[in-house]
Amino acid sequence: xxxxxxxxxxxxxxxxxxxxxxxxxxxxxxxxxxxxxxxxxxxxxxxxxxxxxxxxxxxxxxxxxxxxxxxxxxxxxxxxxxxxxxxxxxxxxxxxxxxxxxxxxxxxxxxxxxxxxxxxxxxxxxxxxxxxxxxxxxxxxxxxxxxxxxxxxxxxxxxxxxxxxxxxxxxxxxxxxxxxxxxxxxxxxxxxxxxxxxxxxxxxxxxxxxxxxxxxxxxxxxxxxxxxxxxxxxxxxxxxxxxxxxxxxxxxxxxxxxxxxxxxxxxxxxxxxxxxxxxxxxxxxxxxxxxxxxxxxxxxxxx
Length: 303
Prior knowledge:
- The chain is of the alpha+beta class.
- The protein has six helices and 14 strands.
- It is globular, with a radius of gyration of 22 Å.
- The mean pLDDT is about 90.
């Protein structure tokens, strides 16, 4: 696919990588720079460098190469299974595991592991996301439910849409929150300045996060968050929005506050109505050892 633009007067003197970044392409600045380096961007019909400055009337073209089709193979990756029957499987996802394959993560994902473990997953979401009803971020740990057949998948999606699925998270956040409870009701959409991030924006989708303070430390608070909606990066964006970002969050917070890469956000409880039996299922997952170690250290400082 080739796209073309003519540089407007108000864009005079802008770097070409910044010019392209402002075209709402949903490409990162680094991805744009790679395309420029590989000759996929033409400036008045010629190759250029990322720091080239465009002028009024210049023609800029971008060719985005077709992505190679991905196939998903079963892989013997260890899983922490918290519940399983003929219709659903609930997994406690580890830190760093991507939920489903994408261009940058073609193996080692949760889907690869699930295909090896149970073979039968719903096909509603296609070959790359079989069984996946909802996701949690790569560096977030904890529970998610996966559908083994299409009937279970449709039922669980309906429950999510009707807010019947309860998802509880523990998050260690920066700062001491003075009140016991809170609700963040703020729409979330793509960050206009950085297309790889989400943000609270006026034209975003509705998003509500309820939280309560579980423990307070000298410079941090442990909160339990309940999602009413399920927007991308919702808890991370909302906690940053109220100036209490999640500790260790590489996108929305301060890096490595405890000398590690741990993003201290964990989906610890998941409740839903079983698609076949119609009984309520509640599954819990303990905090990962790294999260527990940080809390133990903070508690020792309070003595």
